[in-house]
Amino acid sequence: MKKNSISIIDEGYFLLNENQTFRFDKEVAKKFLENIQFPIIVLDTEFFNHSHDSGEYEKTLFTETQKDLVYVIQYSFAKSLKEISYRDNHKAIKSITIKRGHNEPNYDFHDQYSKMITSFLNMCRNKDIRTIVCAGASNDVKIINQWINDNKKIFARKPLSMAFYNKDKKELNANYFDIYEILENAFSFSNTNSEGNEFYNPNNLPPGKQSSEMIALTSSKKFFDWFEVIDDNILKDEDDEIRNMCKIAYSFYACPKDKKISFDQYKSMNKTIKKVVDHCYNDVLKVLIFLDFVFQFTALPYAKNSYIKK
């Protein structure tokens, strides 16, 4: 969101422009924030599965035991919300990506995949990460839970702080926090865009918890669409639909080693992988911006809140 752009109407009630207002209950937000144990890793992954397979190759990468295969991880560590709020977040995001050279003779997807998992889990263990923070965490956490349970030997000497034993499932699970808990419960928004038109079909969104005449937003995309402006254009450009890019990515990684492709085709497919990396980067950055926004509205006086007009 744009800094120095929000006016105060009343306590917990704010004006973005002449057509848009929102409410924020900082006490509700604080209760949810108490569930975050630091240090954290803010995370987003991109993966493919059978739904991305067009059937062009006889042998598939996915199996019955590994149905969702991650090929991009974007992540950012943080020791506190204050750290997130005061640092340059677009420089605080790192990436792990499975790579493939042009007609690479020794390419082995599953070997790289195994190394990526080991690297990720060791990194979380060594950084003493206690919580994974995501936007819509179900898919990411399901995959990481499998990684943890398939690689318990890694933690024989030094435990993984972000993992706990789930007695009901009788397995290790990752401790995670979904920012949508705060978005859907602590915020309410006018159902208007900056021009005063309807922002979204109200029948497809729940009413706001702070006002039944307002709406709750159910995704980070809707949250940023409602505010419209991202400060300083720090998000990377995105033009392609992620599902189609994942289909291309699957074709790129699943192509048999003995099937030669032209360098132009390779460049085109590799360019798609880079676009996926950018998409994943943006998703992590949005979580960081959201956490900064929530921190400033819960922990700082209005005089020090950089989003409030002075």
Shape field:
globular
Rg calc? 21 Å
Number of strands: 11
Which strand order spans the largest sheet, edge to edge or round the barrel?
6-5-4-7-10
Class from helix and strand fractions? alpha+beta
Oligomer: single chain
Distance from first to last alpha carbon: 16 Å
CATH C-level name: Alpha Beta
Number of helices: 8
Please name the fourth-level CATH homologous superfamily. Answer: Ribonuclease H-like superfamily/Ribonuclease H
Task: Describe the protein.
Helices cover about 35% and strands about 20% of the residues. By secondary structure, the protein is of the alpha+beta class. The chain has a single domain, classed as Nucleotidyltransferase, domain 5 (2-Layer Sandwich). The chain has a five-stranded mixed beta sheet with strand order 6-5-4-7-10, sandwiched between helices. The protein has a four-stranded antiparallel beta sheet with strand order 1-2-3-11. Strand 1 and strand 2 (about 15) form a beta hairpin. The longest helix has about 35 residues, at about 265-300. About 30% of the residues are buried. The model has no long low-confidence stretch (mean pLDDT about 95).
Brief summary:
With 310 residues, the protein is of the alpha+beta class.
Characteristic terms for this protein:
single chain; 310 residues; Nucleotidyltransferase, domain 5; four-stranded antiparallel β-sheet; 8 helices
Secondary-structure map:
Elements: E1 7-10, E2 13-17, E3 20-24, H1 26-33, E4 40-48, E5 69-78, H2 81-86, E6 94-97, H3 109-126, E7 131-134, H4 138-150, E8 163-166, E9 171-174, E10 176-178, H5 180-186, E11 187-189, H6 220-227, H7 242-254, H8 263-299
Parallel strand pairs: 4-7, 7-10
Antiparallel strand pairs: 1-2, 2-3, 3-11, 4-5, 5-6, 8-9
Helix pairs in contact: 1-5, 7-8
